[in-house]
């Protein structure tokens, strides 16, 4: 009954478009950030626990950056109305500046797990599941569920604990994947073990809540950019806010010369290949795609800024299907993300699915027919884009089209100091 009530609330109150279109806040984010003005700097005491979501912990992400907020290492000041001294609590994401030394500031994104409206409805659904119509202790209700009780008794994150959650990466989770989640979990004091002996009860609840609502912070921790993965650096969380490195949006390139756009297109194809074929033998794939999931770092590197829709298949251990596909594994955790709909079974995912999605929804916005006449882009690019975007083509043919696209775009990519991620190596080798 609680799940049906929550689904009804969603259909009537918040179906205003996919929430993740709003949470990616690289729009107009400058690549060079000046030192914030102390005049507009707000004191951390003006932050309310409600704004941060600390009043809802331990149904939250964590508290790893709360001290940095208190030390004023994270500031919203460029975006604050003078009279309010606080960002709007109706937004899903916020631009901010972050510093380690109070001298050099870097752009970052602070984002909620889901929109404020969805958080409110999810909290309401938790109370309804316990027979409470007005308010309740959200943490107490979640702790009383059989799902959390099973996790609390175990030192291992088991597939049975995450079964029925709508998070894309948990559609067919292997034990190796779940071990990596625990091993890289940033929000505990002693990170590095696949066992949860060092996890407190509140740590386990925070992890389970994050797994149920939004996988974004976990993906950034599991596959960090420092190890070559195409994801921004994760800095931590405070309450229901999480923070990662900022960038500018992909759409900022649309009016740029072909050289800049061809480099971005090449990178998107390349990182999509690296997601599918890597030394860890995890196949990461897109379940849905839009231009907003990609961003551009200061050095010209393309990152996947929205990892909330990425699925994962363990190529080493294989699929792990549900023991009983007909059994209903749903509970109050199953719809906290704002949707009760799960992604298609892993067995139905084609190796070429990610390429089909980016060739259909992203690359045509970077490469246009006018580039043939104005910039000398070979017309074959568009013929191969059509093949790549066609799901009726074989996987082999789509992969061949991807390689042709990369080979064709390679000579158009710039090699200068504006692209520090590949300069000066690109002067001496085509591999960069």
UniProtKB/TrEMBL annotation:
Its main location: secreted. Keywords: Secreted, Signal. It is found in: Secreted. The keyword Secreted applies. GO terms for cellular component: extracellular region. InterPro entries: DIPK2A/B (IPR020519), FAM69_kinase_dom (IPR022049). Residues 208-374 form the FAM69 protein-kinase domain. Pfam families: PIP49_C (PF12260). Belongs to the DIPK family. This is FAM69 protein-kinase domain-containing protein.
């Amino acid at each position: 009954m609680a799940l049906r009530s929550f689904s009804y609330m969603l259909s009537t109150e918040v179906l205003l478009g996919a929430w993740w279109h709003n949470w990616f806040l690289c729009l107009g984010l400058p690549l060079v950030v000046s030192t914030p003005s102390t005049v507009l700097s707000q004191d951390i005491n003006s932050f309310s626990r409600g704004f941060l979501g600390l009043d809802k912990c331990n149904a939250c992400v964590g508290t790893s950056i709360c001290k940095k907020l208190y030390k004023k290492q994270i500031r919203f000041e460029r975006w604050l109305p003078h009279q309010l001294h606080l960002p709007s609590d109706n937004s899903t994401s916020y631009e901010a500046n972050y510093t380690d030394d109070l001298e050099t500031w870097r752009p970052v994104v602070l984002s909620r797990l889901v929109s404020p409206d969805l958080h409110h409805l999810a909290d309401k659904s938790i109370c309804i599941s316990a027979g409470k119509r007005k308010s309740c202790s959200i943490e107490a209700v979640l702790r009383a569920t059989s799902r959390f009780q099973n996790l609390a008794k175990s030192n291992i994150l088991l597939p049975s604990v995450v079964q029925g959650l709508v998070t894309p990466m948990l559609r067919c989770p292997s034990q190796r994947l779940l071990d990596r989640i625990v091993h890289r979990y940033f929000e505990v004091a002693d990170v590095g073990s696949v066992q949860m002996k060092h996890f407190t009860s509140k740590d386990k609840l925070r992890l389970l809540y994050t797994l149920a609502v939004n996988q974004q912070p976990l993906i950034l921790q599991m596959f960090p950019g420092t190890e070559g993965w195409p994801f921004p650096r994760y800095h931590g969380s405070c309450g229901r806010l999480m923070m990662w490195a900022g960038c500018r949006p992909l759409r900022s390139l649309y009016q740029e010369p072909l050289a800049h756009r061809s480099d971005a297109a090449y990178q998107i194809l390349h990182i999509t290949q690296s997601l599918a074929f890597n030394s860890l033998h995890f196949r990461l794939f897109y379940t849905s795609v839009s231009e907003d999931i990609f961003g551009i770092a200061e050095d010209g590197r393309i990152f996947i800024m929205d990892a909330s829709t990425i699925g994962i298949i363990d190529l080493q251990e294989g699929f792990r299907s549900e023991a009983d596909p007909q059994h209903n594994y749903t509970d109050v955790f199953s719809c906290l993300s704002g949707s009760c709909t799960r992604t298609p079974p892993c067995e139905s995912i084609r190796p070429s699915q990610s390429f089909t999605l980016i060739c259909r929804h992203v690359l045509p916005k970077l490469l246009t027919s006018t580039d043939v006449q104005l910039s000398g882009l070979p017309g074959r690019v568009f013929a191969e884009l059509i093949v790549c975007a066609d799901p009726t083509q074989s996987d082999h043919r789509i992969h061949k089209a991807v390689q042709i696209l990369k080979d064709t775009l390679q000579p158009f990519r710039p090699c200068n100091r504006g692209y520090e991620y590949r300069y000066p190596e690109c002067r001496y080798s085509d591999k960069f």
